[in-house]
């Protein structure tokens, strides 16, 4: 709720397993039109999964969900603050039991009225083990999750005991423990409401999802394009200021950038590293470079025994110290990255939980100390570090090679570290999420909601939804649980930072750099901005 039991934690936050935008295609069908009727063409990458709100935990799918859905909360596109959207009020007296009142006057784009059941049914679906939703873990704080989605064995129910519909406008939520800032998580797309058609004709809904946001999906050809059009009856204040968005799939963002400069594309929201030397000359003030709630990391497979030992933790510290972050960010990323020294983002600010230098010496380049740590602890498991990355954009090979060159220079061995490309982003994410990789891989996090908790729990907590490496540490988990239960903001932040200090010792992933959002746009469109999550504010773009 906006009020007594809530604190403002941070400046911002949105989703998920950091996906370098694989975007593409090249005709100019999105062009044409003008004013409010104009269609904006933008680069895009095919989502990994169908666009179910509780099954989308990567950036490409998240962009669409943010256009076609609105939840109880929405993150302000300028500040990132969680603000009421469909929530009339969210009340609590004990930070564990909440009463949610849904606003009148909202419908889905098919005309169906949005009620309390639209949320409760959607959340139960997202949490139920049988539905195998990627974001099920986001419902884990609701009472009864352990029975609807047990860690092992069969579920005894497909409903969360902590959710109760009171009437059309009201439902109650009981959490399994106190979490005073839980309402601020509710802008994340996993918590979106769903229409009855989602349940009664699921296959048809998946082929053309129906939501309640300012846009509705018109057509979708997987691997090619998705066309969204303004929903004229949208009741929110953030109505679309253009006629629609044509998202075009590119398998190489260099091609997208070329199409932009040639006048065949309106918007590229991931300027490739290879174009950074040219972008200001090419685009002038139509180039956007702004801080975002994104961190990039190197992740490791703790499901492989050789990586899950005390000695391997020291090796990971040594590998971290072998990476010359300052040199790589200066030479390759040119003011669009900053060396990381913790596992959050400067966008949070000190009060929100960012603490520069928290990682200390394990995140500082030290050639001699790095080699000694690696050599003294048995060397790199398997004798060589392979860093996997998706090869379908121009963004990753260059920096992965640079990281390997830095490590190889430290080790005095030009084969100590090698890049290991995987064909497409979808294939790469499938291998990551199915624990098929045996070496390191490029990873990262793009904030979901405005809490330091979001940088830690969904990614590193035991069996968390985005804990692809399967790291597990009881001390870390206990500190996260303790921090969640705190009602005092400063105490909670400090406790979360104590959990980060466990990560310094264990180095479950190596922090690389904080990422800015970068975008370029054509002279056909105006009012182009990126939100604090590095996603274009599509609904505010206007066509000349």
Describe this protein's structure:
The chain is built from 16 helices and 19 strands. It is globular. The protein is an alpha+beta fold. Mean pLDDT is 90; it is low at 1-36. The longest helix is centred in the C-terminal third of the chain and has 18 residues, at 489-506. β6 and β7 form a beta hairpin. α14 packs antiparallel against α15 and α15 packs antiparallel against α16. The strands form five sheets. Strands 11, 12, 13, 14, 15, 16 and 17 form a seven-stranded mixed sheet that branches. The protein has a four-stranded mixed sheet with strand order 1-10-9-8, with helices on one face. It has a four-stranded antiparallel sheet with strand order 4-5-7-6, with helices on one face. The protein is 28% helix and 20% strand.
Structural class, from helix and strand content?
A: alpha+beta
Q: What is the count of β-strands? A: 19
User: What Rg do the Cα atoms give?
Assistant: 23 Å
Question: How many helical stretches?
Answer: 16
Give the distance, in angstroms, between the N- and C-terminal Cα atoms: 39 Å
User: Could you give a short account of the major beta sheet?
Assistant: 7 strands, mixed
Which range best describes the helical content: under 10%, 10-25%, 25-40%, 40-55%, 55-70% or over 70%? 25-40%
Average pLDDT number: 90
Which band does the percent of strand residues land in? 15-25%
Shape: globular
Low-confidence stretches: 1-36
In short:
The protein is of the alpha+beta class. The protein contains 16 helices and 19 strands.
Could you name the key traits of this structure?
alpha+beta, seven-stranded mixed beta sheet, 28% helix
């Amino acid at each position: 709720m906006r009020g007594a039991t809530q604190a403002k934690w941070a400046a911002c936050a949105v989703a998920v397993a950091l996906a370098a935008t694989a975007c593409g295609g090249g005709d100019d069908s999105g062009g044409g039109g003008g004013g409010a009727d104009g269609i904006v063409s933008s680069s895009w990458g095919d989502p990994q999964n169908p666009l179910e709100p509780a099954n989308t935990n990567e950036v490409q799918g998240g962009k669409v969900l943010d256009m076609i859905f609105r939840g109880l909360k929405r993150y302000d596109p300028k500040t990132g603050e969680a603000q009421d959207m469909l929530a009339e009020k969210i009340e609590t007296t004990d930070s564990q039991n909440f009463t949610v009142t849904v606003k009148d006057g909202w419908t889905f784009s098919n005309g169906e009225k949005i009620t309390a059941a639209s949320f409760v049914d959607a959340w139960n679906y997202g949490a139920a083990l049988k539905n195998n939703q990627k974001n099920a873990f986001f419902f884990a704080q609701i009472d009864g999750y352990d029975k609807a989605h047990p860690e092992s064995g069969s579920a005894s129910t497909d409903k969360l005991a902590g959710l109760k519909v009171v009437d059309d406008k009201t439902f109650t939520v009981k959490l399994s423990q106190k979490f005073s800032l839980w309402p601020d998580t509710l802008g994340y797309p996993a918590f979106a409401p769903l229409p009855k058609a989602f349940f009664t004709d699921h296959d048809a809904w998946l082929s053309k999802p129906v939501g309640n946001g300012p846009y509705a999906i018109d057509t979708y050809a997987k691997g090619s394009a998705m066309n969204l059009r303004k929903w004229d009856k949208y009741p929110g204040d953030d109505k679309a200021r253009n006629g629609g968005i044509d998202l075009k799939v590119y398998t190489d963002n260099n091609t997208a950038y070329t199409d932009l400069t040639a006048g065949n594309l309106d918007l590229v929201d991931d300027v490739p590293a290879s174009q950074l030397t040219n972008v200001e000359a090419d685009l002038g003030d139509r180039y956007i470079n702004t801080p975002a709630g994104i961190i990039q990391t190197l992740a490791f497979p703790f499901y492989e025994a050789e990586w899950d030992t005390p000695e391997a933790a020291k090796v990971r510290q040594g590998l971290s110290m072998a990476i010359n972050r300052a040199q790589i960010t200066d030479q390759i990323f040119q003011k669009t990255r900053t060396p990381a020294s913790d596992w959050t983002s400067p966008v949070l600010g000190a009060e929100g939980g960012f603490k520069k230098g928290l990682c200390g010496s394990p995140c500082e380049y030290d050639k001699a100390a790095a080699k000694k740590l690696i050599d003294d602890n048995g060397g790199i498991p398997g004798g060589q570090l392979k860093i996997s990355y998706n090869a379908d954009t121009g963004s990753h090979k260059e920096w992965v090679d640079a990281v390997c060159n830095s490590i190889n220079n430290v080790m005095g061995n030009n084969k100590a570290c090698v890049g290991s490309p995987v064909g497409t982003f979808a294939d790469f994410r499938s291998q990551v999420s199915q624990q098929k990789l045996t070496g390191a891989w490029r990873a990262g996090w793009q904030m979901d909601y405005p809490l330091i908790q979001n940088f830690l729990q969904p990614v590193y907590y035991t069996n968390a939804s985005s804990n692809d490496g399967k790291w597990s540490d009881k001390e870390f988990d206990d500190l996260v649980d303790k921090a969640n239960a705190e009602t005092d903001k400063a105490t909670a932040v400090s406790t979360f930072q104590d959990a980060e200090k466990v990560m310094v010792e264990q180095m479950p992933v190596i922090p690389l750099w904080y990422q800015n959002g970068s975008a370029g746009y054509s002279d056909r469109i105006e009012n182009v901005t990126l939100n604090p999550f590095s996603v274009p504010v599509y609904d505010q773009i206007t066509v000349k």
